[in-house]
Amino acid sequence: FQDKVANIWCSFSIFLKIKDILPPHFQIIISICFTFLSLLPACIKLTLQPSSKGFRFTLVSCALSFFLFSFQVHEKSILLVSLPVCLVLSEIPFMSTWFLLVSTFSMLPLLLKDELLMPLVVTTMAFFIACTTSFSIFEKTSEEELQLKSFSLSVRKYLPCFTFLSRIMQYLFFISVITMVLLTLLTVTLDPPQKLPDLFSVLVCFVSCLHFLFFLVYFNIIIMWDSKGGRNQKKIN
Q: GO CC: one term (predicted)?
């Protein structure tokens, strides 16, 4: 990775310096294995039950897997994930908008280095307002519109009280946005401690990585619990 990238290897090097423990060739092998295993379930599901919807969501899942687990990643590589997310923006506007906000936030250290703070703030606010007005994202947080109805029904077989998923997602969104805003303000207004010169960029990296892991799980849940796509495709054929 270059500088501070919001993938697994950079984010968790805070706790474990893998590059100091393992030789480079072994790091590459581990990276390949993790990447392959993380994208395998979605690819198997798409192969067994091909559908246009499954293809779009599998594009997102695979792109995100490569970003999170690849051996060499640049900060701007998250844009290769954002592109397929734009393809599902009309299907899951709330989660897609959230992901695109996080993907922009993950590039904050790079954008500040290029002195692009003002364009970042203006375009991010414009994008958020556009999504809020065009897609009414806060009105589309039900289990059906989050594409989590099948998953929720499966969970409720074992936990009948599991009826608050929509509310949880809304709370997580607001916590996420507040965290990103606070970290942006801290990064812009405060100087990091002399002993920890990369403190804010590391925090941005780590918080973004946690978000991306959450989104990887979310997109894979949609893929694995989607049975309509495969049936509809068979009817068309």
A: endoplasmic reticulum membrane
